[in-house]
Amino acid sequence: MTPFRFTRPMRPQKPTAAVVIWSAAALHIAKGLIILSSSAADHSIGIASMIAATDDRRTLLGVGLLLSSLLAIFAVRTRPGLFAMFALLPQQTLLMITAIGALTFAGIGRYADGYEPAGGGLFILADQLPRILFAIAHGAAAYHWFWFNDGPVRKRTAVDNILAQARWVSHGADPVEEDLLLIPADELREIVETNIRA
Predict the structure, then answer these.
(1) Where residue 71 falls among pLDDT bands split at 50, 70, 90?
(2) Which long-range contacts (CB under 8 A, 24 or more apart) does 82-89 make?
């Protein structure tokens, strides 16, 4: 008996994107609390960049960091669309400010507290590269809430019901080949008949 074969459709990996946004929210909550409680970290590159961008308005910056985190957390829990897009923009903006600050200090060749490392700007760039890449990763993660899955939810069809009742098996013989849906012909006939009657 020859089974019918269907390839499994690709789906966007939204959980990974959510981890990036949650991480940025945790980072901004921590920085917001630090800024509101102390000035000890004012000369770190990230905080110095944000303080300069807000014209030394510490309270406004601290509250803004906390609010941007809350908005991002709400955005992750909602469907893609206009709200999610605007809710993620403050967090993305803050990450871009710190990334631009890192590039600026690397170009100047000294840290925000005036320290000039032996390696100069290249040392600072290497040190701050994770900050720059995190801003880019957050932008890519936020994109999932801008455009993916923003179409109307369609009703389940008979084909959806058939596929839901079928079982996925991994094709172990050839690891390059995609997973296949294997349904013996008599089982497929039974599933189709059941769904047509329903």
Answers:
(1) very high
(2) 84/145, 84/146, 85/145, 85/146, 88/21, 88/142, 88/145, 88/146
